[in-house]
Amino acid sequence: MMNILLLSCSTGEGHNHCAKAVRQALEAMGHHTDFFDLMHLFGEPGPLSIESLLNRISTKTPGLFGLMYKAGEKVSALGVTSPVYLVNTNYGRRLSDLINEKGYDAVICSHLFPMETLTFIRRHYHINARCYGILSDYTCIPFLAETDMDGYFLPHELVRLECERAGIPSERLIVTGMPVAEAFRNGVTKPQARELLGIPARAKVYLIMTGGIGCGDAISLCDALMELPDEDAVICVLAGRNQELLDQLKTKYNGCGKVRPVSFTDQVDIYMRAADVLLSKAGGISSAEAAVVNVPIVHTMMIPGVETQNAAFFQKLGMSLVADSYEKAARFADRIVYDGKTGERMKRAQREHMPPDGAERIAAVVAGN
Asked: Which fold would CATH assign to domain 3-178+356-367?
């Protein structure tokens, strides 16, 4: 039995989902695991922490996040030490001590930040644990190439080529597919999901997802969907942890049976299974989860940067449609709901390009099976 540490960071809920899916697979094999958010491991971060700042920028000024991402790409291309690395060295000594005290055999990171911390540790301290990183987006993100992991788990063969061009040694790149939790692979049927959620069986269900921190103008998207001539429509809006967005939705659509605002929920898989179409920002993990559930996707409300690249990847392989306006997103969703061929083509592409067992593949590599 191995003793394995999984590290994430709550700049978006997807990174946590990613780590927990691998944890689930490892524990099913009989291994012991611990899971921690690096930003919270050694005390709660303050309101000016990098996690809080990034989440605030993502929800309030996504355009600024896009500019930061572009700047990151340029700095990363220069090959100089990044400020991201320097910030994350602060956890080095304490994390090194924890890994040695607990006797971990391996450390798996689902976020760049702990990968940077482990890189610092490997340069300045001594740990016996093997170190792995999971790329939870469909592109080689800035600064990944400055990290030093024993292996990098990639979601698709096409992403391997990007990582090689960035300078990551090819022998460390392992294509496994994205890790997705069991609930998204084997869950209830669509009728059962609707019964659990209290949604009429005959309804046309439009699911809007804003991510764990609640990004994007979901109200404008709701308004565009409300313009569709569909009396049987039910629009479920998952607002994540964004209480302000949830309150705005409840105020505007109070008494409107079509729009159902939903606070942060652990039933995302059930909502996906109940839906006829998903309209969502393009998080790498959430998009993979939707593709494994096999629900047609319209990518919209993307945060500029990695999410626009995720959306482009999915669109290129026929696994989603990408809309650059709320009106276009509504038209695409309407086409999917009422033109069965469009949705079926997308679902075939998802089944072809989205392996459901990424978590098990990662667990097998880490365990040496």
From this structure: Rossmann fold (3.40.50)
